[in-house]
Structures are given as C-alpha cells and as structure tokens.
C-alpha cells in the first residue's frame, strides 16, 4: 500500500495501479484500496470511465459517505449528466448538510433550472455558516429579485448595506433598484456609492504602494547579501546604496499616504459630486431569456 502511495505521489500511475491491484486481490472489499484505484484512474485522463466504475463499486460498500457522493456528483457533472449529478448531490447534502461546495452547487443548479426561490434556502444556510461572507447574502437578494419579489430583494440589500456599509456591489444594486422604482433615496445611495468607491480606490493605492516598498526592501537586502559574499568592500557600498534607496522609498510612501489622506478628506467634504458608473454585475450571472409568446 505504501509503495502504491509513493508511486502515485511521483506521478507513476501505472506502477501505482499495479501495487493497488495486487493489494485488491488480497483484500477484495477494502474501501481504502478501492478508493486509491479509483483516484489513480481519475488522474489517468485517458480512461475516465474506469474511475466512475470503481467509485460506484466503492459506493456499494459505503453508500452514506457524503464526500464520495460529492465526488460522484462532480464526475456526472463533468460528463454533462446534470440530473444524475443532482441526485447524488442531494444525497450528499442529506448525509452532511454543512458542505459549502455541495450547498453552492445545489443553489446554482436551481438557479440554472429557473427555480430561484428554491435556491434561497441553500444560500441562507451558507450565510449562517459564513456570516462574514457577503456573497451569500448578495445571492439571496438576487434570488428574491429574479423570483419577482422586489420588495423582499430591496429589504435584503438594505440589510446587507447595514452589515457591510462599504460593499460597492450592494450599493450598486440599491442605486439601480431605487432608480428603477423612481424613489428619492436613489440620490442618497448614489452618494454613498461614490464614497465607497473612492475609499476602495484609496485602499488599493495604499496596498500597491506597500507591496512596492516591500519589494524594494527585499531587493535591497538581496543585493547586500550578494555583495557581502563577493567582497567586503563592495558589500559596504551596497549597504550604503540600499539604505539610501530604503530612505527614498519610505519618503515616497509617506508622501503618497499624505496625498491619499488628503483625497479621503476631500471626498468626505463633498468631492462625491462627480459622475459615477452605477452599472453592476449580478452574482448569479445573466438572467436566462424567457420564452416569447405570439
């Protein structure tokens, strides 16, 4: 068994199969050995059907294993058999209802099938498991909107904004909905959107500046180490140059930080009157075209 694992780790899959088949001849119903055979066949892309056969054999031994059911669902999904994939994903969720990957797949399946209201319960469970992840709440709101429940969608977006006031995507949805409904709150949320986008831009600038400074310091350190290995004289010169470069980088970063703080203050004082792009991208993807009648 260990020899098979070693061959598999080194990418010698045929040799790994030889080891596991010899062990399978001794232990016919050992689930671990059968899994290793199926997994190696998964890595041998030229024989994809073999892996499904072995995983099905394993499923007969351990029918309630949620991870195995998820693996079968992935295989069926890759082969384009959505109905069979849905069936095993449902079984996987039944035995372990806290697998986020399974929850997300089932929610996406109902959305593709135009049953958005059924996807809501799955995304609500995911939101309970990951309360700090805004994407689940955005998906819930989008499902309400696609189901035609615009009032509930609006309330959900407002709740998201209270929890994540700096989330640009949520503000874009709020601006769009209030604008479409012709409500005066659109102007207020548009101003909030402008401030959030400005703050996001400033944070990204600071992050970029910090990474550039870190790279400069690391490069200077590398130069010092390399020079010290060559000779002590050149090492001294390199250290002086590196120190000088570091001081310049620090001064530049401080100057940039001051400029960005000034931009933030100006934005808070009313610089948010400029035209902003309020287009948004639905986290659930484009809506499917409904059939037309004569």
TrEMBL record:
TPR repeats lie at residues 66-99, 100-133. InterPro entries: TPR-like_helical_dom_sf, TPR_rpt. One of its GO terms (cellular component) is centriole. PROSITE patterns: TPR (PS50005). Keywords: TPR repeat. Residues 222-248, 268-294 are annotated as: Disordered. One of its GO terms (biological process) is intraciliary transport. One of its GO terms (molecular function) is kinesin binding. Gene3D superfamilies: Tetratricopeptide repeat domain. Residues 228-245, 270-280 have a biased composition (Polar residues). This is IFT88-like protein.
């Amino acid at each position: 068994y260990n020899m098979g694992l070693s061959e598999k780790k080194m990418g010698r899959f045929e040799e790994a199969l030889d080891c596991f088949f010899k062990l399978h001849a001794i232990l016919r119903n050992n689930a671990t050995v059968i899994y290793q055979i199926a997994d190696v066949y998964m890595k041998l892309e030229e024989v994809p059907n073999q892996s499904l056969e072995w995983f099905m054999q394993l499923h007969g031994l351990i029918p309630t294993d949620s991870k195995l059911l998820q693996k079968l669902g992935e295989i069926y999904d890759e082969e384009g058999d959505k109905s069979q994939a849905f069936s095993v994903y449902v079984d996987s969720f039944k035995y372990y209802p806290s697998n986020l990957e399974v929850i997300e797949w089932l929610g996406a399946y109902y959305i593709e099938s135009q049953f958005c209201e059924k996807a809501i319960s799955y995304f609500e469970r995911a939101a309970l498991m990951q309360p700090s992840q805004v994407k689940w709440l955005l998906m819930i709101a989008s499902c309400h909107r696609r189901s035609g429940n615009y009032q509930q969608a609006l309330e959900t977006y407002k709740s998201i904004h209270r929890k994540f006031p700096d989330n640009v995507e949520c503000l874009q949805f709020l601006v769009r909905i209030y604008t479409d409904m012709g409500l005066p709150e659109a102007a207020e949320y548009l101003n909030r959107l402008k401030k959030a986008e400005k703050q996001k831009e400033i944070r990204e600038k600071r992050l970029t500046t910090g990474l550039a400074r870190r790279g400069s310091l690391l490069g200077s350190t590398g130069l010092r180490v390399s020079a010290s290995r060559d000779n002590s004289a050149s090492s001294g010169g390199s250290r002086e140059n590196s120190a000088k470069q570091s001081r310049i980088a620090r001064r530049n970063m401080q100057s940039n930080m001051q400029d960005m703080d000034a931009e933030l203050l100006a934005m808070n004082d009313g610089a948010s009157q400029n035209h902003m792009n309020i287009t948004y991208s639905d986290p659930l993807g484009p809506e499917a075209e409904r059939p037309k009648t004569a």
